[in-house]
Each structure stands twice: as C-alpha cells, then as structure tokens.
Structures
1.
Amino acid sequence: MFGYIRPQKFELRVREYEQYRAVYCSLCRQLGDRYGIFARMTLSYDCTFYALWMMALHKRCPSFQEGRCVVNPMKKCGFCTGGERELRLASALSVIMVYQKVRDNIADDRFLKRLRSYFMLPFVSRMRRKAERDYPELDKIVALATMEQAAAEQNPGKSIDFYAEPSAKMMEQVFAFGAEAPELSPEDRLVRQAGYFLGRWVYIIDAADDLEKDLREGAFNPFIVTKQLQSNCSPERLKEVKAEANQILNATLSQLIAVVNLMDLQPFGSIVTNVIFLGLPEMQRAILFEKEKEKHVGPV
C-alpha cells in the first residue's frame, strides 16, 4: 500500500473524524510500543484504514479517551481503549510492507535510491523480524506477493490485468487473514473480493501516479510497457493514457463499491464507505487530472 487509501475529511461527521484520528494516533503508538520509535515512520493512512475495516468486520467498537501525542506531547489527541488485536495486526502489516519496499528499492538501478535503502535496511529488518514472529503467515503472504510482483514485471508485453494481479491477490489474502471468517463462507468471499479490488485499484493508481517519473528515469511502469510509451512522448499521448487509466480504475472501483454495499461494516461503516465511495475517487481525480496529491502521511 502506498498512502492512497484515505477519507474525504470534509464529508466526515465530527464524531467520525475524531474516531478516525483516534485510530490513526493509536496505530502510531502501537508501532512505537511494539517495534520501536523508528517504526512510527511507517505510519500510513492505508494501515489505519485496514485497522478500521478489521474493527468493523469484528463488530468491535472501542471507546476513546484523550491523551498526549507520543511524538509531540504538547498536542492532545484521542486514543482507542480497545481494538488491540486489530491495531497489532495493522502495525505488523505496516512494518512488513515497508521492509519489502526497502528490499525492492535495493534492486533499483538508481544509485542514491539503493544507498538510502541500504542505510534503512538494518532498522526495518529488525522491525520485520518482530512482526514475523507475531504474524508469520502475514509475513509469508506479503513476501510471496512481492516476489510474484517482481517476476510479473519481468514479463514484457503483458496486460495491465496481468501486472496488477499479484498486488490484488496479496490484498485479498491480507484481508482474509485479518477477517478470520470461515473459509468459503459468504463473509470470507466478500472480504476477499473487497481486498482484491482494493489491491488492484492501489496498484493501478500508483502506476498512474508514477508515470511521468518512470518515463524520465526509465523505470518499469505497466502503462509504459502496455502502451509502448517513449520518454519523449507528447503531453497529448500522456493525457490519452491517463484517460484510459481512469476507465480501468472506474471499473475496478465500481466492483469494489458493489462488494462493500453487500457488507455489514458497523460500527465504522460510515467511515469505511466514506473512504471507498468518496476518498478513493477524490484521490483518483487528483492524481489523473489535478496532480496535487498530498503527502502519503501526516497529521489528520
């Protein structure tokens, strides 16, 4: 996940916004408590959403209390007094994903990117070992998907669907792992479908977001490969490709929304639907047509 899964804040009620912030701040504290102070740098909107979704699936509605920010004690913020399981799971996922991202960057051709990743590797490796001990199956899911994604991207001339499949399958399994629904039950099938379409959407929007940068740097991008783009392609051609990306993303999003409409996601259903129905389309518009995406993580 890459920081694309966030709510449309202005459409949240005050109570919902405070609940979202409390889960975000609780995840930050959980990361520091379990994996060390540097683990807080892995905090993301994506894993906050994962924690919220898992709480909703398990019908857990933690109470909230006010406290001091663990990073800035001068600032007050809310914290969850429950939902420990979901927060622990989301914190493990956060450090596991960052570890795999750093490993992937080491294989990058760009020297500075490799150097920065080599510097980070000892820190994220230590965090990941703790997360692996806590959730070995989760670590295995992400590691295998990362390998499959790298292998898929070594195959030229394939489709967007082909390149997006490993990430989509990874999110399917990550959601199913957290949900713990009986295998092949209606709930398990819905959770898997929701995870699949969300993972597919994230992979494609990330590719669209990086399109110009990857063209400049000669890096892999599924749109560059499938559309046979060159570094000197015209702005009009890029606009056409982004319009095609928008169609693919809209189709994926419509499938995700159809699944979410069938799910009982209380007590945080209104926040989850805000993210899916409003937050993701807003992010899509900003990246494809406005190019004004905010930082991946920051104060909420």
Note: The beta strands are 64-68, 76-80.
2.
Amino acid sequence: MVDLDEQEIIKHAQQGDQEAFAKLFQIHYSFLYKYVLKMTLNQQTAEDLVQDTMLKGYDNIKKYNGQSKFSTWLMTIATRLYLDQQRRKKREWFWQKNEAEELSRSLNWQLSYKGFEWSDIMEGFEKLKSDVRTAILLKHYYGYTNEEIGNMMGIREGTVKSRIHNGMKELRKELVQNG
C-alpha cells in the first residue's frame, strides 16, 4: 500500500534516522493538517494536534507495520488523540462550540453541495458532536470504509454506521430548517 520511496524512508525512520522522519513529516504535514482542521474546526487546536500526532508517530514509528498507508496510520493517531482530548475536555464543550461557530463563520469556502453553500453545511456540521462529525468526515470527505473508521476511532463498525446515519439525518434536518 505504500510506494517504494516512502517505504524506504519509513524503514530508515524506523531505524532511528531523524532526517527520514523529518522527510515523512514534510510529506504528510499538509494532508494531516487539513484533515485535523476539518475535524477540530479550530486552527490552534489543529496545529497542536498535528504536533502531538507527529510526536506520537515519532515515538511509535517502529510499531508501524505497513498494513495501511502511512497517512492512514497518522490519521488514526490524530483521530484517537482528538477523541481522547474531547473526553478530557467535556467540561469545556460550551467554549469549544462557540469557537467552532466563530471559525466556521470566518471560513469562506466556495464549495457548493446539492444547492447549498458550504457555509450552510458547516453551520449544521459544527453542531454535531465531535465523534459524529469525525465519523462523517472520514466517510464522506476522505472515503474511508465503516470498518476502517471503526478501527481508527476504536469503535465497532455498527457504531460507525449509526453515528453517520444519525449525523446525516441531523444535517439534513438542519439544512431543511435553514434552507
């Protein structure tokens, strides 16, 4: 699943070559940052989470076995770190929700989706719980299967289906009410 050049870089990184890991960081930073930003809806949180992901990736590079893409492995780390962070910060939910609303208003993405502006979708998207938002993002934006999402989030495939179904139902309801 990993191309030969990247596989070679990973092999060197697993042997302790810091330059090889730095190269992996460069290759995957932009992709990972965009994913995390969409998941968190907060630039500062996204930057911090990407840093934490790369540190954890560096510490655990020897555990990477090549069964999935390296980017998927990093996304799994980022997703789990984010979910852990959300569990620890439940008391701060109200504050984070306000920040997410503020960020979504400041982002002016020119993407049209079934006749709705992306900003309309974002208003509903930000109201979803973070675990539901993450499952929908992984499924519909990044194209992961329910099984892959379950593995990334550490939940059962049925739970993934349920979160996606209920989240999409909430989004549709929100779009109809506001549209």
Note: The beta strands are 112-113, 116-117.
